[in-house]
From TrEMBL:
Gene3D superfamilies: Nucleic acid-binding proteins. InterPro entries: NA-bd_OB-fold, Primosome_PriB/ssb. This is SsDNA binding protein-like protein. Keywords: DNA-binding. It comes from the Eukaryota. SUPFAM superfamilies: Nucleic acid-binding proteins. One of its GO terms (molecular function) is single-stranded DNA binding. Residues 127-147 are annotated as: Disordered.
Length: 147
């Protein structure tokens, strides 16, 4: 009448790993936006250089559109990387991954201020700005402007 049934123990759903070292606090930010001005190279201590640039992102529509500007620092690991960053023209569309942290300081008037510090870990160029002297015809071919 009754068939004998066999029951199996369920496999554990998930196990949690524990570590004796504390987890590092990390804040990251990803930005897709246009380069506001051409990058600038700055020499800091010990002849180390960094490349600074500003990225603008827009949100909203029509008259309610607002632009947020983010200052980014990049520490190039090679001359080739530095030269590439320095060659980016204003208006280039960039994707930037950055480590982010808030820094607090006191200005010259004694007021406490905060600043978002972004250090780029990855920078990709999504597109370069269109050159106004170069046109594209209906077939998508680039044509030099005559003048």
């Amino acid at each position: 009448m009754f068939a004998a049934r066999t029951f199996r123990a369920a496999a554990p759903i998930a196990t949690r790993a524990f570590s004796t070292t504390p987890r590092a606090a990390i804040a990251r930010m990803s930005i897709v936006g246009r380069l506001g001005v051409a990058p600038e190279e700055v020499t800091i201590s010990n002849d180390r250089t960094l490349v600074r640039y500003v990225i603008g992102t827009s949100h909203g529509k029509g008259e309610a559109e607002k632009t947020s500007w983010f200052r980014v620092a990049n520490f190039p690991t090679s001359e080739k990387q530095r030269d590439f960053l320095m060659s980016l023209p204003k208006g280039s569309l960039l994707y930037v991954d950055a480590d982010a942290r808030m820094e607090t300081y006191t200005d010259a008037e004694g007021n406490k201020k905060s600043n978002l510090s972004l250090i780029a870990t990855k920078t990709d160029v999504l597109s370069r700005p269109r050159n106004e002297s170069v046109g594209v015809n209906d077939e998508g071919l680039v044509q030099e402007a005559s003048g």
